Amino acid sequence: MAYKHILIAVDLSPESQLLVDKAVSLARPYDARISLIHVDVNYSDLYTGLIDVNLGDMQKRISEETHAALKGLSDAAGYPISETLSGSGDLGQVL
């Protein structure tokens, strides 16, 4: 079976690099594309209003950190990463 496109769902833990390395080893023989996706919690769904939190600023900061982490995984892959996707909320809705 020849792979054409491999989508890796990462949680940005240290183990994510192991997943990327495995995907690269599967993709390289077939010159397949690789994409990364990370779906984070939608913090506005969890907010109870008990403390004063600026959710917009927090969500923006988390988004920036996510993009930086995905870029780090892409740069360390040693193989072209076609796309890096990120979102927040329910995985099915984000996809």
Low-confidence stretches: none
Query: What do the pLDDT scores average to?
Result: 85
How many helical elements? 4
Give the total of beta strands. 3
- Oligomerization state: single chain
CATH architecture descriptor name: 3-Layer(aba) Sandwich
Count of folded domains: 1
How large is the share of residues in beta strands?
Answer: 15-25%
CATH top level assignment: Alpha Beta
Helix content: 40-55%
**Major beta sheet, specifics?**
3 strands, parallel
CATH level 3 topology: Rossmann fold
Return Rg in Å.
16 Å
CATH homology superfamily: HUPs
Q: Which series of helices and strands comes N to C?
A: EHEHHEH
User: What is the rounded distance between the termini?
Assistant: 25 Å
Strand order of the largest sheet: 1-2-3
Helix and strand topology:
Layout: E1 5-9, H1 15-27, E2 33-40, H2 43-46, H3 55-76, E3 83-88, H4 91-94
